[in-house]
Write a structure and sequence with these properties.
The complex is a heterodimer of chains A (about 230) and B (about 500). Chain A has about 230 residues and is α/β, with parallel strands linked by helices. Chain A has helices at about 10-25, 35-40, 65-75, 90-95, 110-125, 160-170, 175-185, 195-205; strands spanning about 5, 25-30, 50-55, 80-85, 100-105, 135, 140, 145-150, 150-155, 175, 215-220, 225. In chain A, strands 2-1-3-4-5 form a 5-stranded parallel beta sheet, sandwiched between helices. Chain B has 3 domains: about 25-185, PAS domain (Beta-Lactamase, 2-Layer Sandwich), CATH 3.30.450; about 240-335, Helix Hairpins (Orthogonal Bundle), CATH 1.10.287; about 345-505, Heat Shock Protein 90, CATH 3.30.565.10. Residues about 1-15, about 440-450, about 475-485 and about 500-508 of chain B have low confidence and may be disordered. Classes of the chains: A alpha/beta (about 230), B alpha+beta (about 500). Chains A and B meet through helix 1, helix 4, helix 5 and helix 8 of A and helix 5, helix 6, helix 7 and helix 8 of B.
Amino acid sequence: MAHVLLIEDDVSVRDGMELVLRRHGYGVDTAATGEEALALLAGEHGARVELAVLDLMLPGMDGFEVCRRIRARSATLPVIMLTARGDDADIVTGLEAGADDYVVKPVTAPVLKARIRAALRRAEPSARQEPDTDLAGLVIDRAGLTVTRNGVPVPLPPTELRLLLELSASPGRVLSREQLLESVWDHGFLGDSRLVDAAVGRLRAKIEHVPSKPRFIQTVRGFGYRFGPL
Amino acid sequence: MKRTRENRDRPRGRPRRFVGGLRTRLVVTFVLVALVSAVTATTLAYREARTAVLRRTQDTAVHDLRERTTAVAADFDLPPDQRSLARFAAQVSDGLGARIVVARYRDLAATSDRYADTSGRITAELRAAVRTGDDARFQRVTWRSEPYLVVGMPVTYADGDRRTSGLEVYAITDLRAERDDTAALLASVRAGTVPVVLLAAVLALLAAGTVLRPVRKLGRATRALAGGHLGSRVAVRGHDELADLARTFNETADALQASDAELREQEAKARRFVADVSHELRTPLAAMTMVATVLEEDADQLPPDAARAARTVGAETARLARLVEDLMEISRFDAKAVRLNAAETDLAGTVRASLALRGWTDRVEAHLPEGLRAVVDRRRIDVIVANLVGNALRHGAPPVVVTLAADGAWVTLEVADHGPGLPPEARERVFDRFYKADAARTRGAADAGGQGSGLGTAIALENARLHGGTIDVAGAAEGAEGAGRGAVFTLRLPLRRADEEDEGEAAE
């Protein structure tokens, strides 16, 4: 079973989550602060962590900063934010910091488990059948699950990689945010479409030549996103 | 980025009044005052001038006649005959210029100008006065609509007893020149009145300006104040009553601003308190929600009492979590910290998903025409649908009918049940917070069996308003179509399409 790192300052919440996840077979490491979590990831056991659940309200270094540092250290570790408020600004900032998904406290055990499962599924390599993409210097190798731009590898977090694979699998076809939420995030119909917008934004920053004038991933107003055509 | 739908209350200028306005009243008053002054002064001056002119003419006429008569009468023998009397009249007239002289003696009368008709001008009145008096008399007469001065005097003997000799002399003086003089005077005065009145009007306008400009500024400032610009002030100039008024206005605005700031402060404090309390509750709730799951999962292995307790703890924890969630949401609305995360959405699909998510698909009769798309926040629409349908299922009687329809620039979603409906007093208060009729509200949670937080309808209404829409509630509808229906809740949303609205893109 997968190994999860819980970063949460409140001891009862941390214990509750740890209890629930352990009962369902997950391995759990816990950290009460961001600094502690980063030290743990850098330590000898750091490599076994497959997913981080990160509270945004932390003493000392705040969750956004922790998220950015985790991203800087490991491009591929899925991060689920735990936000103590459904406030829009928090969610948007957290997604921009590189989180793959978010849940709002108090979260029920079934919801937390479902989100963790979905995030881990995105991280699992699953080779696709479609032909590789080689377009204007952007190469997507579907078997090896690697992306290079002008010959330089672009490391992508699992959510962004899955989103790119999903979009590039059918070039020229418009995919709605709802479709993408379902196919990439495993969220139901009522998922938050800002997850898609934020992931697209992060993806553009990495693969587009001019992120403000996207060529690969184009916005189709009122409908969703489309890969190409150039 | 989103277009803000704020309606700034610009203080609008009002149309300038012309009738009944201060400006008009001032002008009218000034002009009237000027007219009355001018007319009064002119009348007095005219009368004075006319009197002076006439008196001078009279005095001259009387004096000349007396002089001339005295000179001529010295060599005149009484009694006269017709010839000598005519000569006498002619001689008197010769020294008087162009005046007609009439001399009378008893029944004889002679005129210096034989063609002149004198009888109309020398009245019986004057003749009687001359005959009985011993000095010159005069009378102004109008003959053939021309003015004349007639002077008459008896000729007396020069020796001591001043007996009248029976000889009377009359001189008729033409007054046309004098009349023309005074008429010219009047005309020039009349001509002068028009510029005076115009000048008065101009002065009135200037005066009105000096009064009206500060008044108008004050009016603008007042309207701005009423429009919510509490920083609105006016400049105070001088020490007159208007300056006092401006000062008073500024003081009032200061006080208003201060108390408004205080109220806002208190309100913000209260809001922060609610938000903080909800916030603080979330952490223990997060822990409880987690461990309650463990209790519920293991309830089957517990003794019956403990199992019941474990399930109750689970259910109540969920309810408390919902209540806190709703409190947070309401305090966000109160703090205006809500954003519409809108995108063009298929409405039928959204409603269907809301029903499916809560397992209500089979319990609700849905009429959802395809192809209706509008720019909405899907999550918020879901909250509204869950609330309205949840209420209908819990408090109304089946069948619950959900009908989606387009209506011009609006889209309506009607949720009707076939229960007893809502009494009027409940209809008015059904959107109040924590209103507990027998219709307790539900926040459309996945388990619609639980109690609502009491904030569900309030939140639904706020969400509708955030879209620029409304929710109305009606009782049993009349008519064949809807007879027997219970409460009918109708959500109305503006039917906006994506091209009318920038879509919210994640910042890049």
